[in-house]
Amino acid sequence: VKKRYSDFVKLRTQLIKAQPKYRKLIPSLPPKKIVGKFVPEFIERRRKDMEYFLTYILLHPVLGTTPVVKWWLID
User: Fold this and answer.
1) What ranges do the domains of the chain cover?
2) Is the dihedral of CA 14, 18, 20, 21 positive or negative?
3) What pLDDT does 39 receive?
4) Which of 8, 36, 49, 68 can pair with 14 through a Cys bridge, CB separation 3.0 to 4.6 Å?
5) Mind listing the pLDDT tens digit for each residue in 52-71?
């Protein structure tokens, strides 16, 4: 899935709106970094954090089946 950081932020926000009782279970996203964002170590750490976020959401029995997630994946 090729998405920008802002796409992940939107997904997380929409998931919280769609499933507010699961708010505390939805993982946080890695912080946005202005300086040094092209450093290979930062890029790899962020990629792993985003992968964890998406994997957690997709494997969750409720969150992974919400229309918000389905539309996000095909958009």
Assistant:
1) 5-74
2) negative
3) 86
4) 68
5) 999 999 999 999 999 999 99
Q: Which CATH architecture best describes the domain 5-74?
A: 2-Layer Sandwich (3.30)
Can you state the angle between helices 5-18 and 40-59, rounded to 10 degrees?
30
- Residue 59: φ, ψ to 5°: -85, -10
Residue-wise DSSP of the chain: ----HHHHHHHHHHHHHH-GGGGGGSPPPPPP-STTTT-HHHHHHHHHHHHHHHHHHHHSTTGGGSHHHHHHHH-
pLDDT digits over 28-54, tens only? 999 887 767 788 888 899 999 999 999
CB within 8 A of 42, min separation 6: which ones?
33, 36
